[in-house]
């Protein structure tokens, strides 16, 4: 459907004809309606008219004359409008209507024409989006042939609870990821029971931490003994003060702790073979024993290096 | 076997650093997953509370619902009131739903409200009370139209709106002869009530 409209007063038309003679390139505005099917609509249906508008160069649609979504009549709503330029330089005005007419038999309804105001400089003219007729049909029989109650309504939409499937799935996924992450972290950290290597110093430090400050001579001696067991387990033999140099060469990561180790063995010698635990506690305060144990555990957690564990690539850190 | 520290430390140091990075990444993954788990748990908890309210209302026990409750809960309360013929209390909830974002729930609320109004109107008509029926039909039509505007393909709303339209027709301008002088022609807005199912003499 195509209609070309120039609406002017008669003298203006004559003037336009003269101008057209003078400049043969001047175009007329035109509007072409791309209509949907014109039949088979029922109550509540929407139909979208698309008007392809071609304007003279320099001409513009007055924005105030564009239709706005509104109630057009008691049975027709304009629900959406959209004006978009297309690639070919035309304007596309799309108008979506919704019919609420409930006919008793098929009948033709008309969407009214809509005048658009075109401005060109100071001149104004009207370009009309043409009317569109369509056939609307009843949804139901006029008289129920099957008997039954013609007033029977379709049922309510019952309120439904929130569906929780998606949330449970996401929560399960998050829990699984947290579990795997924590497991991997424990594995990479060498936490018990995932430790690949025995960590005697870590065990000793943990035991000391649990007991608190070994303030009494008995506790002090026990603390020293548990650290001695740590040295024995790390070096693989009973370690005496004379062997510290060999121990450090065997496990080079303990080189930085050599002075700590020497102080520990000196205190141990005093406690077990010398003047006794009380003097040793002055020589090396109990808090210092705990601190040395913690430092040794940290050093132990460091990579063992090829000297201590040549076969094990993945030493627990 | 004894190696000088400088030789043995280098690859060891690298492995140690690599494991630090691995541990950091694993810790971040774990913390992120725990945060997501917490968010989901809170959401599940809130939804389960809401579902309990919805189930109570559906089971016929009234439960207090505030205006800022989720749309589903508002719909449940509105429906509870509708089926008990407390339409004046249900209407503000439906208006609230229509303003809120969730289109599906708004459509359900408007449609159910239309059904409640229309059922009440039909009830009036069956007892030959025409005057109170007409405004109810109009309100029902407005509700169905609002539902259809949001969801044009909603067939049950189309059907029930059609029932309402046939109860009370109000298309003055389409039934008017355009040749009539509008000032001369009597205002032909009328309501007609075809085929009442029962209750008429």
TrEMBL record, chain A:
UniProt KW keywords: Signal
Region forming the signal peptide: 1-28
Domain of life of the organism encoding this protein: Bacteria
Protein name: MxaA protein
Organism: Xanthobacter agilis
From TrEMBL, chain B:
Region of interest (Disordered), residue spans: 173-201
Residues annotated as transmembrane: 21-39
Superkingdom of origin organism: Bacteria
Keywords: Membrane, Transmembrane, Transmembrane helix
Composition bias, Basic and acidic residues: 173-184
Protein name: MxaK protein
Species the sequence originates in: Xanthobacter agilis
Source taxonomy: Bacteria, Pseudomonadati, Pseudomonadota, Alphaproteobacteria, Hyphomicrobiales
């Amino acid at each position: 459907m195509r209609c070309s409209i120039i609406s002017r007063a008669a003298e203006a038309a004559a003037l336009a004809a003269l101008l057209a003679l003078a400049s043969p390139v001047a175009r007329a505005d035109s509007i072409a309606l791309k209509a949907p099917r014109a039949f088979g609509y029922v109550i509540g249906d929407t139909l979208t008219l698309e008007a392809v508008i071609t304007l003279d160069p320099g001409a513009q649609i007055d924005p105030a004359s564009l239709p706005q979504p509104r109630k057009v009549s008691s049975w027709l709503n304009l629900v959406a409008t959209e004006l978009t330029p297309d690639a070919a330089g035309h304007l596309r005005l799309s108008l979506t209507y919704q019919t609420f007419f409930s006919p008793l038999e098929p009948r033709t309804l008309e969407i009214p024409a809509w005048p658009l105001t075109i401005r060109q400089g100071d001149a104004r003219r009207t370009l009309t989006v043409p009317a569109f007729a369509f056939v609307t049909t009843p949804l139901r029989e006029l008289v129920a042939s099957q008997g039954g109650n013609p007033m029977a309504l379709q049922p309510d939409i019952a309120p439904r609870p929130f569906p929780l499937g998606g949330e449970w799935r996401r929560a399960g996924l998050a829990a699984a990821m947290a579990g795997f992450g924590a497991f991997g972290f424990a594995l990479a950290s060498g936490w018990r029971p995932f430790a690949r290597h025995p960590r005697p110093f870590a065990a000793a430090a943990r035991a000391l931490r649990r007991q608190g400050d070994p303030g009494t001579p008995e506790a002090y001696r026990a603390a020293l003994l548990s650290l001695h067991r740590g040295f024995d387990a790390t070096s693989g033999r009973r370690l005496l003060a004379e062997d510290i140099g060999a121990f450090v060469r065997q496990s080079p990561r303990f080189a930085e702790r050599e002075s700590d180790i020497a102080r520990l063995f000196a205190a141990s010698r005093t406690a077990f073979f010398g003047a006794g635990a009380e003097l040793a506690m002055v020589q090396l305060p109990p808090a210092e024993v705990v601190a040395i144990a913690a430092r040794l555990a940290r050093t132990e957690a460091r990579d063992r290096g090829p000297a201590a564990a040549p076969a094990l690539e993945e030493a627990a850190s | 076997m004894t190696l000088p520290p400088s030789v043995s430390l280098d690859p060891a140091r690298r492995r140690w650093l690599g494991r630090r990075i691995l541990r950091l990444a694993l810790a971040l993954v774990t913390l992120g997953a725990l945060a997501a788990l917490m968010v989901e748990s809170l959401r599940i908890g809130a939804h389960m509370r809401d579902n309990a309210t919805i189930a109570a209302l559906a089971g016929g026990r009234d439960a207090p619902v505030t205006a800022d409750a989720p749309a589903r809960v508002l719909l449940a309360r509105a429906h509870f009131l509708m089926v008990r013929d407390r339409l004046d209390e249900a209407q503000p909830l439906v208006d609230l739903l229509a303003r809120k974002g969730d289109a599906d729930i708004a459509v359900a609320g408007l449609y159910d409200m239309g059904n409640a109004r229309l059922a009440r109107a039909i009830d009036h008509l069956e007892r030959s009370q025409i005057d109170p029926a007409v405004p109810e039909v109009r309100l029902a039509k407005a509700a169905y139209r609002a539902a259809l505007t949001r969801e044009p393909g909603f067939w049950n709303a189309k059907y029930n709106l059609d029932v309402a339209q046939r109860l009370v027709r109000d298309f003055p301008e389409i039934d008017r002869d355009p040749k009539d002088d509008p000032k001369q022609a009597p205002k032909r807005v009328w309501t007609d009530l075809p085929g009442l199912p029962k209750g008429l003499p």
